[in-house]
Amino acid sequence: MQRLQRRHSNGQTALTLLAAVATMWSLSAAPSYAAPLTGFAEYPDPLHAPCEGILHEPTGQIYVEEIVNPGSNGNIGSLGVLDPATGSIERYRLPVPETTAGGAAFGPDGNLWFTYFGASSGVAFIDPDTKQFTNFPTPNPQATPTDIWPGPDNAMYFTESFAQNLGRIDVTTHQMTEVPIPEGGLNIPTTIIMPGSGTRMMFSAALSNNIVEYDTATGQFTLHKVPTPGAVPQGLTLGTDGAIWFSQTIGAKIGRIDPVTGDITEYPIATPDVPIPSMGPLVLGSDGNLWSANGGFTAGSTIGRFNTTTHHIDYFPLPRVGSGPCDIDSVAAAHGALVIGQTTGGAIAVANIAELNAMGVSPAPLSSSGRGGG
């Protein structure tokens, strides 16, 4: 009973933090569409704290996770659909009372799947054609699932931050299962889940300082301990070399997990211009570089470009100071575009990777040798 009460308290704490974020937004009046600035096109979304923008390739629309958009049923967040041609955003309030959306990704069924949490928890999808929602509650209403991604087996996998489970839902039968994550309450898998190599899924366990792999075929977990204490690993991705690359929000490093040995090498990424990058999600771009959103927790406003061969990092300033970039769409990045939610800045930013590279932005170059770890 005490553990259940703690989970409920954690859920209320999450809602309180979301409310606090709302007080930080930029409330400046802006047109519905802003012309490109410093390599980025901006689409203002004030008052809604946009965190993630997901490209829908068939239509070119961008689905936006809006952390705050109170509705008549008492819900907290919404999903927006941004038309880049006009800058207009259609909003669809979540159907579950007193909740907001977590991570989102398109599934093999063509629907946009997302997690939701707050007064209750679960996963849901919206049909891009009908804009109708279908939701599936988790067994524990305070499980707090925070990210979701398609697996190799016609299923969506999601991380449950407070229940400490890895969840799976079949996209055809909608049967949901949960597996406890090793090390229990130390994990807090609040961040990105992504496909690993072969039949594996991978995610970061921030507080236990682990990168976790889960084999969907065998049900086995593999934990990779990050060498830097208290690094708070976040976004992760597979590199072109087959290695797992991940960011460290507190450790101010990018880590690489060798695909054969499992050894971890770390590369410092602080520069004189960006001494505390507060690096968040990391994605692999169409150019083979790793791109990161920096300052989501500290109202920062840069995008990082890390070369996995030279270990050199450049930072590109976003148009809005203190914009708090929350996430970068990995699918869009693979196709040559950066789609970035700016939570405190109240806007979606979009940039062409080739055009950014052509700008030659190179503030505070850093060439660093890696430090090995076990």
Automatic annotation (TrEMBL):
The keyword Transcription regulation belongs to this UniProt entry's keyword annotation: no
Signal peptide: 1-34
Domain of life: Bacteria
Alphabetized UniProt keyword annotations: Signal
Keyword Signal found: yes
Protein name (Swiss-Prot/TrEMBL): Virginiamycin B lyase
